[in-house]
Write a structure and sequence with these properties.
The chain has 434 residues and is α/β, with parallel strands linked by helices. It is built from 14 helices and 10 strands. A hairpin with a 5-residue loop joins strand 7 and strand 8. The longest helix is centred in the last third of the chain and has 23 residues. The protein starts with 15 loop residues before the first helix and ends with a helix.
């Protein structure tokens, strides 16, 4: 079955399961070797020493195989199993548990991939590739250089009292977390009594992607937004119809532009051939896919900022609550690692006011650092792709915590408030039409 031929956004929709968990690679695949770090966990800002108290990193997984297929009119790429071999130095002993420490919950998203069978060549849908494993290992080594070697913020060996790891419950994000941990702490098990724990949530409670399937109100926003794209984005309809013609999809049907972008980017990252007539449209696909996703997570029309709250509000609240705990306790975790997707990062970047209108590449990451001065005043610094960013609503890059908190107040939603919003509007959502 080809996902391209489905219509509508929910259930068997244009985005369908595709939008649930993954949206897709910026052309300039992120590499970590190009960036440098500060040399100390203390920074001087306006004459005051700042002590690093907490680091939270939300990252996208590494390169992977596509999670859709192009229509039969387009030659299929060969995704050989050689492209997905495990990288030995990324292999560590780890265990995946539910957020409450229980057994790993089932993964219906991963199960859905298996139903489609493998790609031509034998690799599975959405599988972290050898390239992707190395990308995430490199990110881990970069974190080690900064937070272990340069300033000894955390211990050189994994310490569960210092480090907390959470992933969405999909194999590629769990494996990406594994690779980051291997780069950060090495893969030697000699001094480690227990496996490293990676925590995850059941899909019906997941907050690290826009969970429109289990949040009725968000689903209604997305369904409405998709129906408005042709008129809301100047020139989009013309580009869409041109792409459909190239793909052999009849005009009356819409198509999955995210799937097209996903396929092109994955092929390019792994050196697989792209048909010339599609390669010529690469910039158009990139632009339109990014515009569509931005519209979905933040609303097509003015006044729909509630869509952004439902797309990333619980993540903003979690990051903020972690910072509050760190201010008042020396016993809380010092490093939080969150393994997610591009659909985790896009709404987060938009909420922070630092989205650059470019699709987050493989291994892209947002870093949120909390500093404290000698007078116990707290400050937040945000980085994206290792570049310092001034958060919207903050007066400086090093933002007073209360100022940061106030800036995020219009977006942040507590876990409880988020699900209450979703449940309250489910009946309305079921009545919403495009």
């Amino acid at each position: 079955m080809f996902l391209w031929r489905k219509v509508g956004i929910l259930g068997s929709g244009i985005c369908g399961a595709f939008l649930l968990h993954e949206f897709w690679e910026r052309k300039d695949v992120f590499t970590v070797q190009a960036f440098s770090f500060w040399s100390s966990s203390k920074v001087e800002e306006e004459g005051q020493d700042m002590k690093l108290k907490l680091v939270q990193i939300v990252f996208r997984h590494g390169a992977r195989t596509p999670i859709s297929r192009l229509p039969p009119s387009i030659e299929q790429a060969t995704w050989s199993t050689d492209l997905v071999k495990d990288v030995p130095h990324t292999l560590i002993d780890y265990r995946v548990e539910s957020l409450d420490g229980g057994p790993r919950p089932p993964s219906p998203v991963e199960d859905s991939y298996q139903k489609h069978g493998p790609h031509k060549g034998g690799a599975r849908w959405g599988q972290l590739t050898t390239l992707g494993q190395q990308q995430m290992f490199d990110l881990g080594q970069l974190l080690r250089k900064h937070y272990v070697e340069n300033n000894r913020f955390i211990d050189p060996d994994y310490n569960p009292q210092q480090v907390y790891v959470r992933s969405t419950n999909i194999k590629r994000t769990v494996e990406s977390a594994r690779c980051v941990l291997a780069g950060l702490f090495g893969n030697s098990q000699s001094d480690r009594e227990d496996p490293i724990r990676i925590y995850t949530s059941h899909v019906n409670k997941e907050i690290f992607w826009p969970n429109y399937v289990h949040c009725g109100h968000l689903g209604a926003f997305w369904k409405t937004a998709w129906g408005l794209l042709d008129t809301a984005l100047p020139g989009y309809r013309e580009d869409r119809l041109k792409l459909q013609s190239i793909l052999g999809i009849e005009e009356a049907r819409q198509f999955n532009i995210f799937g097209l972008r996903d396929e092109l980017t994955a092929r390019k990252a792994h050196g697989l051939p792209i048909p010339e007539h599609l390669a010529a449209q690469e910039d158009v696909v990139e632009l339109r896919a990014t515009q569509c996703m931005a519209a979905l997570v933040s609303g097509v029309e003015d006044g729909h900022s509630h869509a952004l709250r439902l797309s990333t509000g619980p993540v903003i609240d979690l990051l903020t609550q972690n910072m509050l705990r760190a201010q008042n306790s020396e016993n809380s975790h010092k490093l939080h690692l969150y393994s997610g997707h591009d659909t985790t990062l896009i709404p987060l970047l938009k909420a922070l006011g630092i989205f650059d209108d470019r699709w987050p590449p493989y291994a892209a990451h947002v870093t949120v650092e909390l500093y404290q001065d000698a007078k116990k005043n707290n400050f937040v610094k945000v980085l994206y792709l290792e570049e310092e960013k001034q958060v919207q609503g903050c007066s400086a890059v090093l933002c007073p915590f209360e100022e940061f908190k106030e800036a995020m107040a219009t977006v942040a939603l507590s876990h409880k408030a988020f699900w209450e919003n979703c449940k309250i509007d489910q009946k309305k959502a079921s009545q919403t039409t495009v």
